[in-house]
Amino acid sequence: MNNVELYYPVLTLIIFTAAIMCWLLITRISAMKKREVSPKFFKTHDNGECLPEMAMQVTKNFTNLQEAPIIFYALCVFSIVLNKVDTMQVYLAWGFVISRMLHSIVHITVNHVNSRFMIFGISWVFLIVLAVRIAL
Length: 136
Known about the structure:
Elements: H1 4-33, H2 41-44, H3 53-64, H4 68-81, H5 87-108, H6 113-135
Helix pairs in contact: 1-3, 1-4, 1-5, 4-5, 4-6, 5-6
């Protein structure tokens, strides 16, 4: 299989993360314009103010997209470098990306914790299987 096939899920997650970052900026700027939080808050995040709920959800979600996906990116690089890219690795990569996107959508919309937890767990299954397949 061509290694390029693994680039598509990686690029999709990068683009999705950038979109969430844009949403993050929009919610923060909106909160400042509405005077729900002052610009000083963003210096240290500990001046006694709190972000509005939506801005906080998007912030937390953006942070989530900087955690497990880093492992995903590394595993994709390892798959390519070690010539381990096959159809199953690509499917697993897409499974991870789709589950992370679903997690984000749930997190920043209905924010149903049980659903988020289940989707988060599924995303880690994809990640672990990706890693095990590389190691074998």
